[in-house]
Structures are given as C-alpha cells and as structure tokens.
Amino acid sequence: MPELVPMKHIKAKVAAGDWQEAIRAAGVPLAESGAIDPAYIDDMIGSVEEYGPYIVLTSGFALAHAAPSDLVKRDSVSLITLKAPVDFGSTKGPVNVVMCLACTDRAFHLGGLGRIASVLMKDNMIGKLSRAESRGELYQLING
Fold first, then answer.
1. Which residue in 65, 95, 96, 108 is the catalytic one?
2. 56-58 and 76-86 as β-strands: parallel, antiparallel, unpaired?
C-alpha cells in the first residue's frame, strides 16, 4: 500500500498559539510542495469558523480540510504534532495531532477519510503520534 503521508508533509513538535495557527502549520507542507494553493489553508480555517470545531474527531486529534476545490492541485495529506495542545473549542478537548486532507474531488475525500480512520483506529495511535519525537518516528507510525 502506498504511503499515507510522505515525509515532506510531516512535522513534529510545531509551535502554535491557537487553532488557526495549528491549521496553518498543517497546511504549510502541502503549500510548499505545490499540492495546494495557499488559499486552501484559508478555506480550511473558514470551514471551522463557519461550522464550528467539527474537525476535532476525537480527543487530541483534528482533521483539517475544506471542500474539494481548484485550490487543491493534487490529493494529499499532511501530519503535524504540536509542542503544546491547542484548544479548538471542541467538547472533545484540546488537540495535539493535526492532519490536513486536501482533495481534488469527493471520491478521494471519502477514500482518504476511510484510510485515515483505519490507521487512527489502531491501538492508541493518537497517543503514539502525540508522543513521537521526530518526523521519522511519525512517518513510521502513520505509514506502518
């Protein structure tokens, strides 16, 4: 199975003062690699502003995304961990692991979500990711 998140889209122990900075930090690797237009990051933040912290899927974890659009150049996923947990305003509590899902169409959106869910449901995966100290460790955990 191909890698879920390439090494260039992974960052460990990123500093973020609030949830907007956390989403920006998760989106930057995708923008730097040309997978998304930087404006897609604003769309992800706008989605949370409009719909609330629905991207916090479980305690400690947020999946930042927006609707598929022309701002997404290729389907891609990024993963960051935060130096300190950030409050997204969710009843599920603060977040210290953020993934960003960028999709060109709804089919990849659903398939990508399914693949991410299957990896994250593995034994205490969110905890393992949040404790990882390096990009290499994160890469091994998320890509198996």
1. 65
2. unpaired
